[in-house]
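re: the backbone from monday

yeah here it is again, tokenized this time
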């Protein structure tokens, strides 16, 4: 089963009673994604605020919230765990994968990512709606899936040979040639980590590669698809694109929620450049 859904298939299902469409847009440059949603969104969609639906007891950005907090937030969006859930974003495929991962981690049983997102939806001539969403309250019974979220110590163990760590950041950030966008975070990467910039999993139209082309992207980055993997990035957003890609290949992985914001922001973690 694919965790992606095509624009054509979603368009054919609009209006079905158990379909819930979620705009999960988030922008690293701080642009107001909610304002974008109110300007144009897929009819029937609700807006998921990634920064709001997060653990506010840590300074790290948009960390996974508790099951109770997640259930309250998505229930207010009218989404239940047994709904057919489709996640998209305004970039094509960027932050939607993170929210797909969150829903799956919290027990959603049928959740997919719109391949190509809102750009492809509009390019193919499908309608958009404007204004705020006003969903009816639903009940989402959240149960955290064990063994999906990787913590700092899990990554330390992986780097000692326990698993592959795959970093989705761009090559310049990974090598330390480009400064990190968050203040106080060192440049570089975890010693022994592999670099697979998330864009290498995507076709020019924003859709995810399939089959042999998708597999080749991982193999060319040095990934052994038969070994355990932990995905990481700057703050746990684009790491989920790698997680989604691995899932499309039938592979499981863990996602390092703190990602480089945590690792690069500490004084007791090794950093390599070059």
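seq for it, each position gets an aa:
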């Amino acid at each position: 089963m694919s965790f992606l859904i095509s624009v054509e298939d979603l368009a054919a299902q609009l209006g079905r009673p158990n379909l819930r469409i979620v705009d999960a847009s988030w922008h690293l440059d701080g642009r107001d994604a909610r304002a974008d949603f109110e300007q144009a969104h897929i009819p029937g969609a609700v807006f998921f605020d990634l920064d709001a639906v997060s653990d506010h007891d840590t300074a790290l950005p948009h960390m996974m919230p508790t099951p109770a907090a997640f259930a309250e937030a998505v229930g207010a969006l009218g989404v239940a765990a047994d709904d057919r859930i489709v996640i998209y974003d305004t970039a094509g495929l960027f932050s939607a994968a993170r929210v797909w991962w969150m829903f799956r981690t919290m027990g959603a049983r049928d959740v997919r990512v719109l391949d190509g997102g809102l750009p492809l939806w509009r390019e193919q001539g499908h309608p958009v709606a404007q204004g705020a969403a006003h969903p009816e309250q639903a009940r989402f019974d959240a149960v955290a899936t064990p063994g999906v979220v990787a913590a700092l110590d899990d990554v330390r163990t992986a780097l000692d040979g326990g698993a592959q760590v795959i970093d989705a950041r761009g090559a310049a950030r990974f090598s330390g040639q480009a400064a990190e966008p968050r203040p106080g975070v060192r440049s570089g990467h975890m010693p022994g980590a592999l670099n697979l910039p998330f864009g290498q999993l995507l076709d020019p139209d924003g859709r995810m590669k399939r089959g042999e082309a998708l597999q080749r992207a991982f193999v060319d980055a040095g990934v052994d698809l038969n070994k355990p993997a932990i995905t990481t990035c700057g703050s746990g957003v684009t790491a989920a694109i790698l997680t989604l890609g691995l899932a499309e290949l039938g592979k499981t992985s863990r996602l390092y929620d703190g990602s480089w914001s945590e690792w690069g922001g500490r004084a007791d973690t090794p950093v390599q450049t070059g």
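The radius of gyration is 18 Å. The chain has a mean pLDDT of 97.
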